[in-house]
Design a protein that fits this description.
Structural class: mainly beta
Order of helices and strands: EEEEEEEEEEE
Number of strands: 11
Shape: globular
Distance between the termini: 40 Å
Largest sheet: 7 strands, mixed
Length: 117
């Protein structure tokens, strides 16, 4: 079984920055896709960014390209999401996801990000 522990959410003013982290522990598969999703008020959960364990392949939602950067520490099965130039529309609950290839995926508990003046 895999556990995901998220950290780094909070309140920030528009134009500010936050860094989210997600650490995976337990029976983590060798190959997986790990990433962040978010659920904004009144919207469905959507992909923000993801990264592959087997290389430096990343994928971003169009709305965050150029502002957010996803990275990983392979030795620790940890990913980070550096969020810059935050906008009020980035407000929402951010969920970490680990999707092992061919196996059920795991979700974190979610962390609140609020962008407001």
């Amino acid at each position: 079984q895999v556990q995901l522990v998220e950290s780094g959410g909070g309140l920030v003013q528009p134009g500010g920055s936050l860094r989210l982290s997600c650490a995976a522990s337990g029976s983590v598969a060798k190959f997986y896709v790990m990433g962040w999703y978010r659920q904004r008020p009144g919207n469905q959960r959507e992909l923000v960014a993801q990264i592959h364990s087997g290389g430096d392949i990343t994928n971003y939602a169009d709305s965050v390209k150029g502002r957010f950067t996803i990275s990983r520490d392979n030795n620790k099965n940890t990913i980070h999401l550096q969020m810059n130039s935050l906008k009020p529309e980035d407000t929402g609950v951010y969920y970490c996801n680990l999707n092992p290839i061919g196996l059920p995926d795991t979700w974190g508990q979610g962390t609140q990000v609020t962008v407001s003046s």
